[in-house]
C-alpha cells in the first residue's frame, strides 16, 4: 500500500507541475558556455554553466508556452562577451513581446568597476532591480593595449615578426611601444561602433532619448539612488523582494536550461526526421583534435574534430542544412584551410551552410567562415582581421645574460632557421616574407571568391583590419545581423524544412570515446554514437509521455557531443 500511495503521490505531483504556472530563472553568475564540451575535463569545469544554445531554445519555447508567466535573470559579475549579450537581449525582447514578464536583478553592475556591458544586457528587461548597496558602472567603452617591446629589449629579447598588413596589430604588442596610426584608427572605430550599439539598446529598453543616454555614460558610474533617479533601474531591492514581487503563489521555479531539456517542454524528434546539423567551433584553431591545452587555458578548435563533424553532417542523408557556430580568434593557417575545405565540400553536396558568429570570429575564425552560403553576425561580433603575421622571438642575448650557452650542430643552411637563439639571416627573412605573402594572397583570394568580391575590393577590406559585425555587414563581409536562433531559422528555410525541424550536433560522441584509438580517419566512433542514440530514441519518447526528464544515456547533450 505504501508503494502504491507513493506512486499515486508522484503522479499527482507530475500532473500538478504540468499545469502549474512556471517562472523561469537564469543565473549568469558563472557566465554561459558557448558550446558543448570537447573533452571530459572541460565538461567537469563547465558543469555549473548553462549552455547558450539551451538557454536560447528554452526562451524560444517559453514564448508560446502558456504556463510560463515570467523570467527572472540574475546578472553577475562574470563578464559575458558582447555578442553573447546581444543574443540574450534579442531573446528577452521577443519574450517581452509575447506578453511574459521579464525581470533583471543584480547585486551590482560593477562593484567599483566598469559595468557597461552587464547593464546593457539588463536594459532589455521590462523591470531592472539593483540591490540597495549596489552600483551601476555605466561608464562607456575602453580598449586598452599594452606594449612590451621596450621591456623585452631590457631583458635582451627581440621579436622578429612580419605582418600583413598595417591593421594586423596583434604583433604590435611585441614590436611597438605605442599605437600606430592604423592601430588607433581601427580601435577607435570599434569603440565608437560598440558605443553606438550600447546607446541605442539602453535608449530603447529604458525609454530614454539616445542623447540622454550618451550624457549618462559620461556621468557614470552611479550609486543606487542616482541610478533610480536617472531612470536606469526601477528600484532598489534585495533578492527576496524581487522574487516576492515576481513569483505568484503556486508558481513553480525552473531554470531555463532545465526547462529546455525537460520532456515537459519539448518533443523528442523521431530518429529518421530531417534535421539541421549544428557544429560548434570554439577557441584557438589548431591542427588535431579539439580540447583543452594540457598547460591550461581555454579550449581549442581542432581541425580533425571540426572536419570530422562537417563530413559526418555532409554524408548524413537526414541532415538537410548545416549551421556552423564560430567563436574563435584564429590560429593555425593550415588547420583553418582544412576546415574551409570541408565547408566548401558541404556546399557542393547541396547542403546550405550558415555560419553563426559568436563574440569573436576573426583571422582564422573568419577564414573558416567565409565560404558559407550566409554569414550571420551580431552587431558587436569582432570579425575580419583578414591578414597574417609570423616570426619568432630572439632570446640569445637574454640567455647570455643568464649564463646559458647554446651550441648547435646542423646540416643544411637553414636547419636552425626557427631557433630562437639567433636572428633570421637576410635570406631567411626573405623566405619568411614570401611565406606571409603567400598566405595573405590565399586568404584574400578566398575572401573574394566566397564573398563575391574583386580581389582589389577584398584587399581593401582586409589588410588585417578588425570590424564589428555591424560594420562588417555594411562592408559585405557578413550578410545578416542576428544570433544562433536566426541562423537556425535561416537554415531551416534554405532547406525547405518546417520551423520546428529538430537540430542535432555532429558528430555525436561521448568525450570518453576519445580515449580509445579511432577505427579510421572517418571517425567511425561518431557514427556508432549516432546509432546508439537512435536506439535510445523510443525510450526517450516514452519518458516524455510519462512526464519524466529525457536525461538518459546518450540524451544529455553536454556530455554526448563533441565539436
From TrEMBL:
GO biological process: signal peptide processing
Compartmental location: Membrane
Pfam families, alphabetized: Peptidase_S49 (PF01343)
Keyword Protease part of the UniProt annotation: yes
Keywords in alphabetical order: Hydrolase, Membrane, Protease, Serine protease
CDD domains according to UniProt: S49_SppA_67K_type (cd07018), S49_Sppa_N_C (cd07023)
Peptidase S49 domain sequence ranges: 97-246, 347-496
Keyword Ligase appears in the UniProt entry: no
GO cellular component labels: membrane
Protein origin, superkingdom: Bacteria
An annotated Gene Ontology molecular function: serine-type peptidase activity
SUPFAM superfamilies: ClpP/crotonase
Signal peptide location: none
Residue runs in coiled coils: none
Active-site annotation: 168 (proton donor/acceptor), 363 (nucleophile)
Record family assignment: Belongs to the peptidase S49 family.
UniProt xrefs under NCBIfam families: SppA_dom
Name the record gives this protein: Signal peptide peptidase A. Serine peptidase. MEROPS family S49
Organism this protein belongs to: Microbispora rosea
Organism lineage string: Bacteria, Bacillati, Actinomycetota, Actinomycetes, Streptosporangiales
Amino acid at each position: 500500500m505504501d508503494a502504491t500511495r507513493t506512486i499515486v503521490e508522484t503522479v499527482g505531483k507530475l500532473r500538478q507541475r504540468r499545469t502549474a504556472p512556471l517562472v523561469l530563472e537564469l543565473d549568469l553568475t558563472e557566465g554561459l558556455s558557448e558550446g558543448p564540451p570537447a573533452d571530459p575535463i572541460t565538461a567537469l569545469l563547465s558543469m555549473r554553466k548553462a549552455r547558450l544554445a539551451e538557454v536560447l531554445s528554452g526562451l524560444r519555447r517559453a514564448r508560446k508556452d502558456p504556463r510560463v508567466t515570467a523570467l527572472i535573470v540574475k546578472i553577475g559579475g562574470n563578464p559575458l562577451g558582447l555578442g553573447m549579450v546581444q543574443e540574450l537581449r534579442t531573446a528577452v525582447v521577443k519574450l517581452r513581446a509575447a506578453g511574459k514578464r521579464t525581470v533583471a536583478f543584480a547585486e551590482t553592475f560593477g562593484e567599483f568597476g566598469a559595468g557597461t556591458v552587464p547593464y546593457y544586457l539588463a536594459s532589455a528587461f521590462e523591470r531592472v532591480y539593483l540591490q540597495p548597496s549596489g552600483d551601476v558602472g555605466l561608464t562607456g567603452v575602453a580598449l586598452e593595449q599594452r606594449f612590451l617591446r621596450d621591456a623585452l629589449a631590457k631583458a635582451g629579447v627581440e621579436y622578429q615578426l612580419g605582418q600583413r598588413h598595417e591593421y594586423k596589430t596583434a604583433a604590435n604588442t611585441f614590436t611597438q611601444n605605442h599605437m600606430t596610426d592604423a592601430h588607433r584608427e581601427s580601435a577607435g572605430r570599434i569603440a565608437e561602433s560598440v558605443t553606438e550599439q550600447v546607446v541605442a539598446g539602453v535608449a530603447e529598453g529604458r525609454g530614454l532619448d539616445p542623447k540622454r543616454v550618451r550624457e549618462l555614460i559620461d556621468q557614470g558610474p552611479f550609486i543606487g539612488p542616482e541610478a533610480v533617479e536617472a531612470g536606469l533601474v526601477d528600484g532598489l531591492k534585495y533578492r527576496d523582494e524581487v522574487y516576492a514581487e515576481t513569483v505568484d503563489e503556486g508558481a513553480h521555479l525552473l531554470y531555463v536550461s532545465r526547462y529546455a531539456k525537460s520532456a515537459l517542454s519539448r518533443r523528442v524528434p523521431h530518429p529518421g526526421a530531417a534535421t539541421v546539423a549544428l557544429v560548434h567551433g570554439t577557441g584557438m584553431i589548431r591542427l588535431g583534435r579539439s580540447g583543452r591545452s594540457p598547460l591550461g587555458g581555454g579550449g581549442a578548435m581542432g581541425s580533425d574534430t571540426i572536419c570530422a563533424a562537417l563530413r559526418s553532417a555532409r554524408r548524413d542523408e537526414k541532415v538537410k542544412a548545416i549551421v556552423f557556430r564560430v567563436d574563435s580568434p584564429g590560429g593555425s593557417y593550415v588547420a583553418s584551410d582544412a576546415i574551409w575545405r570541408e565547408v566548401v565540400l558541404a556546399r557542393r553536396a547541396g547542403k546550405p551552410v550558415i555560419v553563426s558568429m559568436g563574440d569573436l570570429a576573426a583571422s582564422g575564425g573568419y577564414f573558416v567562415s567565409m565560404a558559407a552560403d550566409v554569414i550571420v553576425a551580431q552587431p558587436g561580433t569582432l570579425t575580419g582581421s583578414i591578414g597574417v603575421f609570423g616570426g619568432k622571438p630572439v632570446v640569445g642575448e637574454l640567455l647570455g645574460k643568464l649564463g646559458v650557452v647554446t651550441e648547435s650542430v646542423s646540416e643544411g643552411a637553414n636547419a636552425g632557421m626557427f631557433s630562437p637563439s639567433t636572428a633570421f639571416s637576410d635570406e631567411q627573412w626573405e623566405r619568411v616574407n614570401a611565406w606571409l605573402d603567400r598566405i595573405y594572397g590565399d586568404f584574400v583570394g578566398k575572401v573574394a571568391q566566397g564573398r563575391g568580391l574583386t580581389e582589389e575590393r577584398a584587399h581593401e577590406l582586409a589588410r588585417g583590419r578588425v570590424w564589428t559585425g555591424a560594420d562588417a555587414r555594411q562592408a559585405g563581409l557578413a550578410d545578416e545581423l542576428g544570433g544562433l536562433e536566426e541562423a537556425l531559422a535561416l537554415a531551416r528555410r534554405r532547406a525547405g524544412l518546417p520551423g520546428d525541424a529538430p537540430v542535432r550536433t555532429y558528430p555525436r560522441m561521448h568525450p570518453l570515446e576519445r580515449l580509445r584509438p579511432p577505427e579510421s580517419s572517418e571517425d567511425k566512433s561518431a557514427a556508432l554514437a549516432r546509432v546508439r542514440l537512435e536506439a535510445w530514441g523510443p525510450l526517450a519518447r516514452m519518458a516524455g509521455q510519462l512526464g519524466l526528464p529525457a536525461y538518459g544515456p546518450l540524451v544529455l547533450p553536454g556530455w554526448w557531443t563533441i565539436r
